[in-house]
Amino acid sequence: MTTAATVSEVRRRFGRTQALSGATFEIGTGVTGLLGPNGAGKTTLLRILATVAAPDSGSVSVFGRDPSVASQRVEIRRRLGYLPQEPGFQRGFSVFEFIDYVAILKEMTNRQQRHAEVRRVIDAVDLASVSGKRVRSLSGGMRRRVALGASLLGEPQFLVLDEPTAGLDPEQRLRFRELVSRAGESRAVLLSTHQTEDVAALCQDVVVLDKGRVLFQGAPSELSGVAGGRVWLADERVAGAELVWRTGEGRFRHLGAPPSGAELVEPTLEDGYLLLVGRFDEEVAA
Amino acid sequence: MTWHVPEQLVSAYAVGELAGARAASIEAHVMTCAECRLTVNAEVPTERMHSIWAAVEDEVDAPRRSWAERVLSALGMADSDARLVSGAPSLHASWLLSLAAVLAFAVWASNSRSGGTTLFLILAPIVPVLAVGGSYGRGIDPTFEVSVASPYPTMRLVLLRSTAVVAASGVLALVASLFVPSGGYAAAWLLPCLALLSITLVVARWLPLPVAAAGVAACYALPLIAALVDNRDVAGVLLSASVQWTALALAVSASLFLAHDPMLRSALRRNR
Q1: Which of A242, A234, A240 is closest to A261 using CA atoms?
Q2: Interface predicted TM-score of the whole assembly (ipTM), two decimals
Q3: Which of A130, A216, B112, B203 is an S-S bond match for A208, by CB 3.0 to 4.6 Å?
Q4: Buried b (16+ CB within 10 A) or exposed e, A180-216
Q5: Burial grade of B40 (CB within 10 A; 0-12, 13-18, 19 or more)
Q6: What pairing do the DSSP bridges indicate for beta strands A231-234 and A252-255?
Q7: Which of A49, A79, A93, A115 to mutate to test the interface with B (most CBs of B within 10 A)?
Q8: Measured between CB atoms, does A136 come within 8 Å of chain B?
Q9: Cα atoms in the 13 Å half-sphere on the side-chain side of A70
């Protein structure tokens, strides 16, 4: 795995809120998923990696370049595709016009080549049929795809996607997976999401962030393994489990220490994530 | 008997050697003649066909150009820069109408009571400053986050947009000056305006542009409005030679600082 970015002991505070408390991890070629509850510091971390914000302390390196140095920051930006959590759109711009505008920001000055690239990404996100429509008249999911298309301009070597699947319907999410999976074959993709099934389906590596700290980095199967021997089914709700919910089959899925003779089942990535985040709460409380 | 396009004409048309009426007549004919359509189609080289399609697609997809974009291109700005500059919110009609309304109010005040010109002298210099503040920044430009993460130099974008919005709002203020009693007297806002704009751009090296513009405008206007409410001779102060020379000195100093700013120089050197 070629290292695309490293984050070392990064801290960032906003007023009284410590958004990042010494986050450390590496991102390589392939798709890396960033999981964490709301307020975990995911967006702050992605903004720092996208060179939009700077850390208070610690160091960040993208393709060996230091984003705190102006000239190196520009080199990073030339290889970067960024989808912000809440992308904005110029008033009155059509899909084509908006992506064309971003293409100019990405230094594509040759009009004909730029337009060809704009058409390529519009096709990639399946928006050719609404290319001439105003972005602000589109649904939330479509607008997200417009912003995703803009982030793909110029085939960037490092894609930073903040909750790219928010607002997408199941079919769009499948198309998105195909798109990102293809990008991850030769490039580094870092995506934050609340959808553990997206991570399980797409990512070769997972980083779990909570309260500004990295709790886990490893393969999705390793995250599932965190819950190994701690997921069990029962016909009734059993007291003492950390989490219990009724499944579609009418049985109760329990997370936590199983009683003797419990019917253990294969843990999912979501089970591992839930137990991991819950355990961290206990550690902090202790 | 059906007429068909002669072979030598097809060959000449296929490689783009026919122009004007002859090319047009062949195009009109092939629309109705399937046989000639196939012949011409087979003769046109694939590369030429692709480049024609690319040109057609390019024309069909060409983004609509706003009035600001057309004016900037006509003034010699590169099309790509003009597009980014025209994205400045303060170049939108709603912003310019608001600024025009402020100036119209100041003109009305200057004509309706004695001493009203003072209000115009206070408001006219800050109109272009506010327009600069409304040209770029978080919460102002919807694509701010994406533009910051792009390799396009932020300083260049700020300068290009500032120049465009100062020109647009400055024209509004100059036109408004014509309706103020004693026009020469009303032009006394120009040097303070120049000073405020230069200081805004200097402060914007450390603060977000909208904050810098709002702060500089407030520091200038609020004390003067307070003095005006207190019935002091604000116009006399603004028109005094010492204030005008001070404004000129501030404008020159701030401009010299900007001219020596390495980031700004690198942004201006950029050949696009």
Answers
A1: A234
A2: 0.86
A3: A216
A4: beebbeebbbbbbbebbebbbbbbebbbbbbbbbbbb
A5: buried
A6: antiparallel
A7: A115
A8: no
A9: 9
- C-alpha distances in Å from residue B81, one per residue of A185, B109, B209, B267: 35, 39, 19, 13
Strands, DSSP E only, in chain A?
3-14, 17-28, 30-35, 57-62, 80-83, 158-162, 188-193, 205-210, 213-218, 231-234, 243-246, 252-255, 263-264
* Mean pLDDT over each residue of chain B, to the nearest integer: 85
pLDDT of residue B185: 64
pTM of the model: 0.83
Write the pLDDT tens digit of every residue in B125-150: 999 999 999 999 888 899 999 999 99
**Tens of pLDDT, residues B46-56:** 888 887 777 77
Q: Do B148 and A88 touch (CB under 8 A)?
A: no
Edge-to-edge strands, sheet with A213-218: A80-83, A158-162, A188-193, A30-35, A205-210, A213-218
Domains contained in chain A, CATH given: 3-219 (3.40.50.300), 224-285 (no CATH)
Whole-angstrom distance, CA of residue A221 vs CA of residue B129: 57
List CB contacts of B232: < 8 A, sequence separation 6 or more.
Answer: none
- Block residue for tokens 């060179």: A51
Residue A5 and residue A61 in contact, taking contact as beta carbons nearer than 8 Å: yes
Q: Quick check: A233 pLDDT over 50? A: yes
Q: Map out the domains of chain B as residue ranges.
A: 7-61, 67-269
> How far is the alpha carbon of B125 from chain A, nearest alpha carbon, in Å?
28
* Contacting residues of B for A78, CB less than 8 Å apart: 151
Cα separations in angstroms, A104 against A44, A116, A131, B88, B237: 26, 13, 18, 15, 47
Would you call B87 and A90 a contact, using CB atoms and an 8 Å cutoff? yes
